[in-house]
Amino acid sequence: MIILKDVEAMILELKDVTGGYSKTPVIHNIDFNIKEGEIVGLIGLNGAGKSTTIKHILGLLQPHSGRIEVLGKSITNIKDQARTHMTYIPESPILYEELTLREHIHMTAMAYGIDEQTIMKRADGLLDLFRLKKELDKFPTHFSKGMKQKVMLICAFVVQPELYIIDEPFLGLDPIGIESLINLMVEERSNNRSILMSTHILSTAERYCDRYIIIHDGRKIADGTIDDLREQTGLKNGTLDSVYLKLTGGDSHVS
Amino acid sequence: MFRNIFKTRMDHDIKLRAYYSKYIFNSHFILFLSIAAGVLLYTLLGLKENLAGNIYVDLVAAILMSVAIIPVYRSLLKEADVIFLTPLEKELDDYFMSSKIYSFILGIPVPFVVSAIAFILLIINHSVENSLIIIFTFYLMVIGVFTLKVLAVNSNISPTAIVYMFMIINTILLFLQMQNMMLIILGILIYLVAFIILKKKTRSSIDWLAQIDHEKQEQNRFDTIISMFANVSKRNKTFKRRPYFDVLMKKQFIKHYDQDHMYDYLFHRSFLRDFDLPMIMIRLFILCSIFIIWMSNLYISIIFILFVLYIMILQLQGLYTAQAYLLWPKIWPVSREKIRNSYIRYSKKLIIVISIFFIIVFISIHPAEFYIAIIFPIWALLINKVFSKNVYKKEEALSD
């Protein structure tokens, strides 16, 4: 097995990726990277290609052309190994109806090769943080949408991978849940772990993301820090919202 | 116009049934059914001489006919209809009339087959004319229970309760009629009274939520029956916790906490918490055991155990299919081979346990022929291998 972490490289790198669900491409020549300890926001309208990009990174879709690398190795050659370095939180919670919350944690641990003692120790803090300790032996399918999303978050953060891929992280969470998640993301960043999150809550993204990748009509139209984007648009004190509107030509509905 | 909506939905439903029938009634299954029917007919005709005058034969015939009256009512309504069709409620008479005719036709095959078996039982104690009158009464009951069920769906009375209540009433009525043909009048009276009461309890307008909910239940029942013989691809599997099974999922049973065995862990829980699967298996085992003990015929025992094992193993494939297409196995850093290996390991274990139960029943009925029981696990493992190969092939084709 190749120990990917030994390789001096970007955590994630997309090189000129064109792809989609069928032969007609949805995303075109997407190019970006994520470094160690970075929170990167993936921003775009409905149908802009954010989810398609994420599906390519996860290996659920094969690019028509271009290359996706995780820690310097192409994911097409080392799909399963690449996945050991990332966890994914989908936009809508996807859970096993037949498993309790504890059993979801066990499944995650077995999948990522973490022993039972370690996983339960890590889960303990997360269960406290998201106030789910009492629900450990219950079926998450009976939980509210926000609680289900918290289960997804616990199962992802318990792994402590190099890269988190989070699709709309704040969707369905209550204000305390959002605050807890932000704290967790900031803490993970300080532990040199990276996060790629697609979001439409630009005001929150602006406070915590180090960098933004803006996708429009399947193409990357901007990539940089908020200062880079301000410079690119000429909006000196612009917010991420106004910068975004300027970049996309006035489309006001971001999602 | 609304007849056309129903026709479109009906055509789709018929297509679906034809699609599954193609898989269910394959050459092996037809051969199997023919042998089983032949042996059953031979045994029933053989019983004719020995059982003449035995009142229990009448009782068995009455029970058999009564339990066969489980009418199907498929309105084919969809959830969106509550929004789009509600304003047009008064123009939907054609739609509902067509749905009643279609539903009644759908429910006829089972009573038809049962009436043939019941007729053989009836002529043991009754003249052919009287037997035909009883069969005629049986068909009147089929129409009667169907009518009452349709009324109940649109009332606050449970259609299931009506069906089960009339199962008991029909058993009594049929049995009494077998003793005195004039008692057919009592049956007609009871049905008339039930009809009048239910008609009064029925809402004057359509209870859309109840109708749609009932349609969902009927669809689920159809899927459950079909899944006994074939894989239902779009089936929404439901699960429930049975606390008495929790003991089988205790922590000490997790011997291997690793990637290789994670799907064993999942399959075990999927099986024990499946809404239908474990209960269907237990019911099939009990029914098969009762039947073969009652018949006490070596050939019937062998054929029925092999047949029930066939159905049980076909059901098991759903466990693998459900996992193979989910998102998480595609996200986790675990090779898909491991899902397959886990399924092979887990299904083998389960099959051996089921076979052992059948071996115990078989040996207790036919102790002298105990050695024959070895064919049950061999057959089960072989069938499992064949079915699994088809499932893997289908999965590979889809993932390509």
TrEMBL record, chain A:
The keyword Nucleotide-binding applies. InterPro entries: AAA+_ATPase, ABC_transporter-like_ATP-bd, ABC_transporter-like_CS, ABC_Transporter_VariousFunc, P-loop_NTPase. One of its GO terms (molecular function) is ATP hydrolysis activity. Keywords: ATP-binding, Nucleotide-binding, Transport. The keyword Transport applies. Residues 12-242 form the ABC transporter domain. PROSITE patterns: ABC_TRANSPORTER_1 (PS00211), ABC_TRANSPORTER_2 (PS50893). This is ABC-type transporter ATP-binding protein EcsA. The gene is ecsA_1.
Automatic annotation (TrEMBL), chain B:
InterPro entries: EcsB_ABC. Coiled coil: none annotated. It comes from the Bacteria. It holds the Pfam family EcsB. This is Bacterial ABC transporter protein EcsB. Keywords: Membrane, Transmembrane, Transmembrane helix. One of its GO terms (cellular component) is membrane. The chain crosses the membrane at residues 23-45, 51-73, 101-124, 130-150, 157-175, 181-198, 277-296, 302-328, 349-365. The keyword Transmembrane applies.
